[in-house]
Design brief:
The protein is of the alpha+beta class and 152 residues long. It has a single domain, classed as Gcn5-related N-acetyltransferase (GNAT) (Aminopeptidase), CATH 3.40.630. 35% of the residues lie in helices and 32% in strands. The protein is built from 5 helices and 7 strands; from the N terminus they run E-H-H-H-E-E-E-H-E-H-E-E. It has a 7-stranded mixed sheet, sandwiched between helices. The radius of gyration is 15 Å and the shape is globular. The model has no long low-confidence stretch (mean pLDDT 94). It binds coenzyme A. Coenzyme A binds next to strand 4, helix 4 and helix 5.
Length: 152
């Protein structure tokens, strides 16, 4: 793969992040699109409030993905991870996931955590990275966790 770099988000990334989040909703939660759009100010506030924890992947100078996490007590919750469709299966998602793990555990969190739809193949990426399914949340999403020191 050509030169991949990860960097903190800058404000001009927000439209690309918005488009990535909308594409996810349209692919995986199409019945929730109207609700998601009506909550867009809430989502924008989430991204802005955690702006320093928003990481962008750049390949050959082009925006190709992003991730966002936030500390919740001793857990670091991965809110979103997304790679532009044309750039998937090139290791970019795993690079973002690994960077989140290093940053979150380095900041003092003891566990990484996230939710994923049971039918989303992103599960495989999490499992390959040492995350373990610990249950199902109220919306039917699988909960995954990884303790500090257990990454691969
Ligand atoms: C999930 C996502 C971020 C993965 O990004 P990616 O750059 O394609 O991931 P990688 O190339 O690093 O894949 C790492 C491993 O995860 C697994 N994996 C990822 N996507 C997969 C897929 N669609 N099918 C099967 N396995 C997959 C594979 O084991 C892969 O390794 P391999 O390619 O060597 O077999 C990307 O598919 C995406 O943006 N999806 C839409 C948003 C989304 O669903 N986010 C997760 C919400 S919980």
């Amino acid at each position: 793969m050509n030169a991949l770099s990860l960097r903190p988000a800058i404000v001009t990334d927000l439209p690309s992040i918005y488009r990535g989040e909308l594409a996810y909703i349209q692919q995986w939660e199409p019945t929730h699109e109207a609700g998601w759009r009506s909550q867009v100010e809430h989502n924008l506030a989430l991204w802005v409030d955690n702006f320093e924890l928003l990481t962008v992947a750049v390949l050959d100078g082009q925006f190709v993905g992003y991730s966002l996490w936030s500390p919740e007590d001793s857990f670091a919750e991965l809110y979103t991870i997304n790679v532009s469709e044309a750039y998937r299966r090139k290791g970019i998602g795993r690079a973002l996931l690994d960077a989140y793990g290093v940053a979150a555990l380095g900041s003092g969190c003891t566990h990484l955590s996230l939710s994923v739809r049971p039918d989303n193949p992103a599960r495989l990426m999490y499992e390959c990275a040492g995350f373990v399914a610990v249950g199902t949340d109220a919306h039917g999403y699988l909960r995954y966790e990884r303790a500090n020191g257990l990454g691969t």
